[in-house]
Amino acid sequence: MTQGWLGMTKTTLKLNLGPQHPSTHGVLRLILELEGEKILSCEPDIGYLHRGMEKMAEKLSYIQYLPVVDRIDYLAGCFYSELFCRTIENALNIELSERDKNIRVLLLELNRISSHLLWIGAFLMDLGAVSPFFYSMREREMVLRFFEKLTGQRMMYNYFVFGGVRNDIGYIDDIKEIIKILPNKIKDYERIITDNPIFLARTKNKGILEKSVAANYSITGVNLRASGISYDLRQNDYLYKGYEFNPVVLQGKDAWARYKARILELKESLNLIRQALDKISKTKTQAKTFISPLGIKLPEGEYYNEIEAPRGLASIYIKSLGDNVPYRLKWRTGSYYSVNLLKKLLLGEFLNDAIAIAGSLDIILPEVDK
Amino acid sequence: MNISELQNVLKESKIENDKLIISKNLHDTILSIKDNYNFDILKSITGIDCGNNIELIYHLYSVPNQEDLLISTYVTDSAETVSDIFESAKADENEIYDMFGVQFDGNADLKRLYMPEGWNGHPLRKDYTGNDTRLAWNDENNA
Amino acid sequence: MNYLYFLYTEILAKYNIPKLFGEITFYIIPFCVLAVALLIIVLILVLAERKLLGWFTQRKGPNRVGWWGILQTLADALKLLLKENITPSKADRFLFNLAPILVFVPAMTLLGIIPYSAEFTFVNTSSNIILYLLLAAFPIVSIFLGGWASNNKYSLIGAVRSIAQVLSYELPISFVVIGIVTLASSMNLTEITLSQYTKYGILGWYIFPCILGFIIMFLCILAELNRCPFDLPEAESELICGYNTEYSGMRFAIFYLTEYALLFGNALFLSVLFLGGYLSPFGAYLSHIFFGETAFANILVYFEQVFWLIFKASLIIFVVIWIRATLPRLASFDMLKFSWAVLLPLSIINLLFMVIFKYITGGAV
């Protein structure tokens, strides 16, 4: 409270943005201090979606925990499934068949596409444009329909199992159609969004994330690459061995670059899907030799794995004492650090720029709260 | 800079399970590792309740050299903060405080994160009984 | 109007009703008609907007209630009527209740000053264009009242934003309107309409000399109506619903209806100023072309004129909805900058150009 004009007192406005708010994408609560519309301080409050994923793991056997991991990020469940399965496979020295590896790559990239498509729609919704949301949801629907046919689920697939995938791949025609249609649709999005002067004014030079800051705040994934740091785990991932792949790196550092990077990632993912389809068609369906999931006991030791999820680096750490449950299981998710970044990135911005900046980071709350 | 070379440089450290284990001067060690060997991202801090003490694993990554480094230390109830070196450590340390009850000296922002304010106990500790549900709310803290 | 008045007093005289009664009620009846017509128009507009937005986004739009979803808005309105009117406990009760009532009045009056056809204007004052400038800016008072009285931070920010918006966009409108007044040498809307009449129809409209003014005014009206891309005061993704966050039930319905009534009124006004009002775009009226100069055609012309006016307004409304389906929202700072740094200078240049145009084309300035 400071003394202002004509002896009036000047106070700041404390605004609770969320936990129920259209553009916090879930149950994020931001406690903002505003002077006019300018943000003086931002304090994220999380935990409204906390499900105790890590504590749960200590009570459930590995096969019991497998369906749960999809729920960590319900928009990109495959990635956490893959991460969990991979850790168990590494620990037990299970070798995946070539076909299963390629199926996994295919599904991961499809999942990434559906996640990015949703983000594009939601981001434009944050900026006040209604139509792109429906356009991107329309294409996402094709992907989800395919997932539903293949796995029986639209979002939480539980499709990857220890040592492979649950069923062999099918419905190849659906994927081929997606590959055929999506590039044109991406062009359409670009036509309506990318060079729109209002969109440019809202996102260019807004929410600039410098390289050093991004690294310091442990930002990974697309947000980091849009700031000019080339760090894509897919380059070294064993699943992606033999795939031609160029990580998307932009120098823009602003919200627009983060948008553009995701659009380019969509195209890159389509590329990977094409290659994966190619590779799958060269292999034949094999009889499954599943390991019995019931008695899985990890040998004593510590296991660490990481993967490039749509919202940044996701990693898992398991410490096992040789039981059928882990002694400690830790998830590292990208969004958690993005929320932490909001404290810095929103300072001094106007309220409606803040919404755009927060939206551009692609925060999803189940990932934050675990 | 691989881990065994680092161990030669740093005295009083040993390697166990691919982790560099440091017993003291955590803050200064991490600061020197960051400055001298370009480890610019702290991917995560993992806490593990080992019974008598709590193990903290710092997962560092170097973008220019594309290297990972795991640094581990054992603490009891309080630890040195690295939040002045890595901003992201604030979030991690807060999570560890919430889940394990480790106090980080120098990190003023510690608060209950996932658990409600005034919750008794720290859930990821092995001695957490888990039966103090909503009844365990401390009404005085809550009011 | 005189003709109608004559007819009305004739009928009253037939039943021996005093003339004074006729003089008073004659001006009330149109407003009753208007109120009913307004509700119907708004219901149609809301449906049209939802249908169009549906088509723009490759959906079907409302299609369950009634044939082709025609009763959807009616059902929605009914739902709102039946809902509880919630007043926040810390709100200023009096102002909170007053705001929706206040907001409806200027919208109604605005529709009253439009010349729908020759001799058919409810309130035909000699300079009703001034009245328009006043009425168009008036809803902001109740918007601010509502936002402030709700005692909600989102409402307050929305209300303050809308004050800033209307203040900055009111000025260019005035300059453009002065330009039109210069062209028509009149402040009466009927005379402005008639001054656009030529036998070439569309060529006489003021949109041709004043295309810049039309664009400026169109943008300013978007801003005054809080329509996309100027929908900052009720930005859904930022302020939940802006100034009417706390309103529910009937009061919310009134705000909602008024928004569309104002949209319709402003679209009518734009067509009167720039698109020749009720004049036919072909010069001669279709009724005269098809039926000759008969008495039947002369009566039909009145309806044709109403049709042309509403048709032109619908075109404008279509563009407004089209813009909503296409553009994102402006940033708050850009919104102000756009008005003061772009529209205001342009509108002054436009006025200057109008004066020169009028001088060259031979009017006495």
Structure description:
The complex is a heterotrimer of chains A (370), B (143) and C (365). Chain A has 370 residues and is α+β, with helices and mostly antiparallel strands. Helices cover 46% and strands 14% of the residues of chain A. Chain A has a single domain (52-369), classed as Orthogonal Bundle (Cytochrome-c3 Hydrogenase, chain B), CATH 1.10.645.10. Chain A has helices spanning 53-57, 62-69, 77-92, 98-126, 131-151, 172-192, 197-203, 211-216, 222-225, 255-282, 334-345, 351-360, 365-369; strands at 2-3, 9-10, 13-17, 29-35, 38-45, 160-161, 164-165, 301-309, 312-320, 328-332. Chain A has a three-stranded antiparallel sheet. In chain A, strands 8-9-10 form a three-stranded antiparallel sheet. In chain A, a hairpin with a 2-residue loop joins strand 4 and strand 5. The longest helix of chain A is centred in the first third of the chain and has 29 residues, at 98-126. Chain B has a single domain, classed as Beta Polymerase, domain 2. In chain B, the strands form two sheets. Chain B has a five-stranded mixed sheet. Chain C is an all-alpha fold. Chain C has helices at residues 2-14, 19-56, 72-82, 93-112, 128-137, 139-149, 153-184, 189-195, 211-224, 236-239, 249-274, 286-291, 295-326, 332-360. The A-B interface holds A 46-47, 50, 52, 54-55, 212-213, 215-218, 220, 229, 231, 236, 301-302, 304, 306, 313, 315, 317, 319, 327-328, 330, 332, 336-337, 339-340, 344, 369-370 and B 17, 19, 40-44, 46-49, 57, 59, 63, 66, 70, 86-88, 90-91, 99, 112-116, 123-124.
